[in-house]
Amino acid sequence: MRLPQNTRYAVAASAALAVTLTACSGSGSGSSASTGTWDKDATVNIGSLYEPQNLDNTAGGGQGVTEALNGNVYEGLFRLTDDGKVENLLAKDYKASADGLTYTFTLRDGVTFHSGKKLTSADVKYSLEKVLADDSQSARKSNLEVVKDIATPDEHTVKVTLSKKSISFVYNLSYVWIINSQAKNLKTDEDGTGPYTLDKWTRGSALSLNRYAGYWGDQAANKKVVLHYFKDATALNNALLTNAVDVVTSEQSPDALDQFKSNQNYKVTDGDSTTKLLLAFNDKAKPFTDVKVRQAVSAAIDDKKLLESVWGGYGKLIGSMAPPTDPWYEDLTQVNAHDVAKAKKLLAEAGYAKGFSFTLDTPNYDPHPTAATFIKSQLAQVGITVKINTITPDEWYTKVYKNRDFTATLQEHVNDRDLVWYGNPDFYWGYDNKQVTQWVEQAEEASTTAEQTALLKKVNRKTAEDAASDWLYLYPQIVVASSKLSGYPLNGLNSQFYAYDIKKKG
User: Is residue 21's pLDDT more than 50?
Assistant: First the structure.
């Protein structure tokens, strides 16, 4: 979920496709680097709307900490590339047992933490246990609860035993930061193995990273990275226009794009996003316990008109939780397509011919207030009265996510392959379909990716038919950068933004 500047918990974690793993020597590449020379001692200034709440991704650091530190300061056994593939990183290689219950990982040689301590298997064990701890707020905690035992036969070997098969296990490990087991004060400090060290974090302003001279892999293409934080898209765009920043991680103001498109000093790219805007019903609260009511609300809202009003010609309609980049994606936009007459008919069949009233808990940052107002006007056409209750991200996390004290809410879910949460009846939206839960469990224990994909396609279609939520649209991923820059990530995959390949001409 997208909770900028505060919590933005990516709780919409996923069961993922098992993908081919390839070795790498450290740094990856997003966009192609331009030919010619670049300044190897450059400072790259990055503009963002998403400041971390703290620097610990198991303690509610939020989207901002992922954007700043994932892959840059901290690394995992595996890395998720900008195009969604999984690569070996701190794991030199691994072997899985024939029954799929035991994984043995061999660690890469010559890796040190920024404190100078050598990476050992004890650090990997500690990092996994940190994710699984009772107080962990890690987005991957529930995915990794299949871990039964973690053994460290020697300093270079980690042996993990699972309670049941998990075809997504290696993929999910790409989200686990390997941290020095002796590190302290991780909410304000760090001790990772990545190509950058933390320089300084000035809350409310900026966070800077320095190239780590002792990095085990290829050195970062720039000497320093500074992430500058802004309160709104207008301020962010002004910073880009005045060269205060070189690139923005995600453009949130499509109306401002023309000034960059028509200027040869900038480059605008539209990559693949995995961020979905949801009208999430509490499927355990009346009237949304009734599938016909959920279907009616979905049909009453003109998603195309909403997308156009918020994003102009950018973004995509999406008829389910699976974006086009997911292996089990199908175009289901017609399942509950906009149809006011159908919506009224469904409401009558459900016993609400005169409509009903409900409160929509709405995060206070864009585009939620705009979307909420639009939804209110759309539902009024079918007799439904919407009371908008605007709340902060922290209030949303406590009220909606933790306490389930809501009837319907707006929220962004940023992760790829997060359809599987509809198989968990304890998730905050309360969708409970025994067949779907069974399909999700079978998919995770599948022996092949083809079997997994076939099962999750069934989940995708069934949740769409049940209008488990109303998936309003898929965000665009628009990156605006100085023409002097190359090597920056183009896609908005799970909020990560690898900076180490960014090259800046002098």
Answer: no
